[in-house]
Inverse folding.
């Protein structure tokens, strides 16, 4: 305190980093080290360990379908507990700290409860506390809408809180602390020889995050890209350098494919025998969008008669919400039937070099075929190819793809 | 909903009434019955069961001396969980409900964290939600100061929240639901033949509450008296009529003493060999007041030389905070020493008839002496007499006093 300010650092610690009083003390120590190094520090915290799941289970004991406004009211308490306890731990170490909820900071969001988007972050209170040399602890995952109702930002939303605060404060870096060392070429629990990447671009990270790599919430990477925020993904359990997600960085350029991602939390819904009229698909996906259900992959296959099928995938968490919508649309458009499955997974390859290298998709399909893995749906972007396969074949698929694209071998 | 509005009812449910999902469903049912009867309903809730104690224990695992601002940040989550869950339960029963935290209602308090006093309750949001025929669930025990920091109102603070809301909304009645049937002539767990009182005046209730009867927070009765709010103390576990605390009511007039209270959460501190100079007592009690420590009973006894002792009692919860203050004053004024004890209790008799009946105190002392109970301190008001005795003699003392004043016999 006093002295030269080296930088303004925003740190974010996930639930596993603050799961117990002992871990909270360790996180507090780490935060004060950052201040001792001459930095101003703002820290965003998630709820302790499994506490969000515990709160959810409490809600489900009361009702199967809790109103989302009240779910947000309930879940936002988890982060509030964390900020209070970490503030106490920092105080016990002799450093000044102050905790702030989303409402107190002034994190304004839209109205979409349980999945809100941040519209604005007020810097006034943050700057006031920083000017008093305090470490500021902000409850992640939460904000409030224009009506002053508490909203939450969806699973992993604390990442977005941290990046948004780093953006408005023009922080030098946004450090995201998690229980892994950084971003890997594949999930190390699935592929033991997966390698840690030193740097990765926002675009590549966005694809990896969206594809289920689970290291960062996709929305947080979008915001980081938009405001050119550098993210440092690292572990709170050691002092290793992690992975830098930054503007202009690419994963190792020589490689065509630089990561394999998989996502087990996928559900697939099919609308069968859909009358071949214009506007049918538009009606279906508009109604899903109205319920804030993100649709991921879509295929429409024309049958020999004039009817056809529409299949699409969504996050498995949204299945309960999506089924009545699809059922309603089915009745209204006179479709022949509907089907859904939860036993599917998505595997994906990602790399900025893909655009200029034809044949990457073919290599992927060949590698999966060699393992007798059936591909149910395919989707591509400029820097990724994703396939929907059976859930119980996901591990085998990820390992095969990691081998096929030689991701265990460093290129530099 | 629709139809004639019979009344505006404020209800308050304590922690034991919402301790489990099953009890929450039962409370929700009871709330909707009140709405079905044609009332507008505002409900104030405490934290579930032992959850406040669980949060406190979490804090103490992090640090022995948590900053009070952060303690309030932590503890206020307990009530927020309750309002969300009860709102969900009411929604599941098909009734419209909305939960509001202290900040959202606009309950402004002073700055005294962990023991704040309500300065103002904004009715705007409450009236807006009521006008939409919603059941409004308000988090008890909490508010916010002018700086938008969360404050709490001390143990039992939800009672005060309920009474304050009833006052500003000019509610017809404030129903305080608890795990006992009403206000008794003594604690029924200590005196099995204690009787339930039908009515009691605010003044009498204030004495009983302050004396440790624990049915209502004393501050809530003060506010109720000030704004002439009628309180109905009743059980959430049955439909019995409880006790009405109301303006002008007296407990049964023919009785001189109408209740025996006891308080086991007492600590006694003595400052020994205090120099006999003016301003010493004033300094001591001013410094305690500056730390928001309520001093209850005070005695000053002059010794044969020019020194004397000052003894006083406080709530046992405040002991940790009081000792360093007394230690500092001891040094500054050059007192000979200090002592403290936690093994004391306060027993009291209360009754509006006492003013006009001499000899009541003597009867009390005689009854205690007959049981060989030594009296360490005495304090009196117009409608009560209190004695500090050894903690392990409290039960015996309460039973003896209940018998001595024939409280087991109804006078009407």
């Amino acid at each position: 305190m006093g002295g030269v300010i080296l930088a303004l650092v925003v740190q974010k610690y996930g639930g596993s980093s603050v799961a117990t009083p002992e871990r909270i003390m360790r996180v507090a120590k780490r935060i004060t080290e950052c201040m001792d190094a001459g930095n101003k520090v703002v820290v965003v915290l998630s709820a302790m360990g499994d506490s969000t799941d515990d709160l959810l289970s409490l809600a489900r004991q009361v009702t199967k379908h809790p109103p989302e406004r009240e779910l947000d009211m309930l879940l936002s308490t988890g982060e509030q507990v964390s900020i209070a306890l970490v503030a106490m731990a920092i105080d016990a170490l002799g450093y000044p700290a102050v905790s702030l909820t989303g409402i107190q900071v002034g994190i304004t969001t839209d109205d979409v409860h349980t999945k809100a988007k941040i519209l604005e972050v007020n810097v006034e209170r943050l700057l006031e506390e920083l000017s008093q040399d305090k470490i500021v602890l902000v409850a992640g995952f939460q904000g409030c809408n224009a009506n002053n109702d508490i909203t939450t930002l969806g699973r992993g939303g604390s990442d977005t809180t941290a990046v948004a605060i780093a953006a408005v404060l023009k922080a030098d870096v946004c450090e995201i602390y998690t229980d892994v060392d950084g971003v890997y070429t594949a999930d190390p629990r699935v592929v033991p020889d997966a390698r840690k990447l030193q740097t990765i671009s926002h675009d590549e990270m966005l694809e990896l995050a969206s594809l289920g790599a689970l290291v960062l919430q996709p929305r947080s990477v979008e915001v980081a890209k938009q405001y050119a925020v550098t993210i440092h993904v690292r572990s709170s359990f050691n002092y290793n350098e992690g992975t830098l997600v930054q503007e202009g960085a690419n994963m190792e350029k020589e490689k065509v494919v630089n990561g394999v991602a998989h996502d087990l939390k996928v559900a697939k819904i099919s609308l069968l025998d859909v009358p071949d009229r214009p506007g049918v698909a538009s009606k279906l996906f508009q109604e899903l969008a109205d319920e804030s259900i993100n649709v991921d992959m879509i295929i429409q296959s024309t049958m020999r008669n004039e009817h056809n099928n529409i299949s699409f995938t969504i996050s498995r968490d949204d299945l309960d919400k999506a089924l009545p919508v699809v059922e309603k649309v089915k009745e209204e458009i006179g479709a022949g039937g509907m089907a859904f499955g939860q036993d599917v997974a998505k595997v994906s390859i990602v790399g900025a070099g893909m655009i200029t290298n034809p044949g990457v998709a073919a290599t992927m399909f060949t590698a999966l075929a060699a393992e007798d893995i059936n591909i149910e749906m395919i989707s591509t972007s400029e820097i990724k190819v994703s396939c929907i396969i059976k859930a119980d074949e996901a591990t085998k698929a990820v390992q095969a793809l990691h081998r096929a694209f030689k991701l265990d071998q460093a290129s530099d």
Notes: The first helix of chain B runs from residue 21 to 36. Residues 8-179 of chain B form a domain with the Carbamate kinase fold (CATH 3.40.1160.10). Chain B touches chain A through 39 residues (CB under 8 Å). Residues 6 and 39 of chain B are 5 Å apart (CA to CA).
